[in-house]
Amino acid sequence: MITIMNLSIIKNSLITNQTLNTQVINNFKKLRLSVFFPPLFLMILIVAFLIIENDFSVDAYILIQKDLFLYINSILSHQPNLQYNLTQLGDVIIFLPFLAIFMIYAPKLWESILASLIVSCILTNVLKRFFAVPRPAAIFDNDIFVITGKSIISYNSLPSGHSIATFTILTSVLFAFMPKKLKFKVMWFSIILSLGAIIAFTRVAIGAHYPLDVVIGSIIGYISALIGIFFSRKFNLLSWLANKKYYFISMILFSIWVIVLINKIITLNLIVFYFSLASLLATLYVTSIIYVKKQY
């Protein structure tokens, strides 16, 4: 039996769905190709800096950042538990559950995010293999900096995959819910950018990446999100996400996702995993109610 509370949830979700999804669609339509200019300009500046410093060799790239890496690592590593929890948000499996509810309320956002993540995944794997930069733990004496969690000694430091994923997701959210008034736009942009920077630089804090890995990764993530947004504007390949008769697919995926998160809790038992799991369970609950109501 569906309770009055459940009916209220369904009614409110339908209203919110229409309102938020329309807002997201309209905000995406406002974007012009000029939004690519700032991140591309920053990337050009970084490349120009490396050219001037003659730092296109792997050894030079690492050496020029060594002091800054050690400084940032020493400062941020004073709160290892906090940094280790925050850095997990660079994993899409942990971050996306916080946005899972928008699969109901703003499916266009999810369409954009999924398209963006495909782009960022390709770029991440191609660029990591191309540059093959050794991680800090593979090149420095591990006693001179703080390593939180498992020591990573692979040769795939550039760019930071966690930073790419973080900014891919946050940039999609940034433009999806961009306010209309300028002062609120500035505040919103500052909040999202600051959140992204905090999460991204945890990679330096835990000793997993150099500063430029994080900066370059963040820019790539930003660009990937823009590509995903423009793609979702032109194509509606995932429009079925908004169709309630297909919610059972989401419910199955969410259930599998729940198992994955529980396994992570069993393995590492970090508090951020509990928040992620709670967010996903809440979305699964609301999705189930709407789907059952649709059937009956």
Give a nutshell description of this structure:
By secondary structure, the protein is an all-alpha fold. It is 73% helix and 0% strand. It has one domain.
Explain what this protein looks like in three dimensions.
Residues 113-229 form the Phosphatidic acid phosphatase type 2/haloperoxidase domain. It is a multi-pass membrane protein. Pfam families: PAP2. This is Phosphatidic acid phosphatase type 2/haloperoxidase domain-containing protein. The chain crosses the membrane at residues 33-52, 86-106, 113-131, 160-179, 186-208, 214-233, 245-266, 272-292. The radius of gyration is 21 Å and the shape is globular. The protein is an all-alpha fold and 296 residues long. The protein has 15 helices and no strands. Helix 10 (161-176) runs antiparallel to helix 11 (182-200), helix 10 crosses helix 13 (211-234) and helix 14 runs antiparallel to helix 15. It has one domain (4-239).
How much of the residues is beta strand, in percent?
under 5%
User: For the residues shown, what is the average pLDDT?
Assistant: 91
Low-pLDDT segments, ≥5 res: 1-16
- Give the N-to-C terminal Cα separation: 11 Å
How many helices?
A: 15
Helix content: over 70%
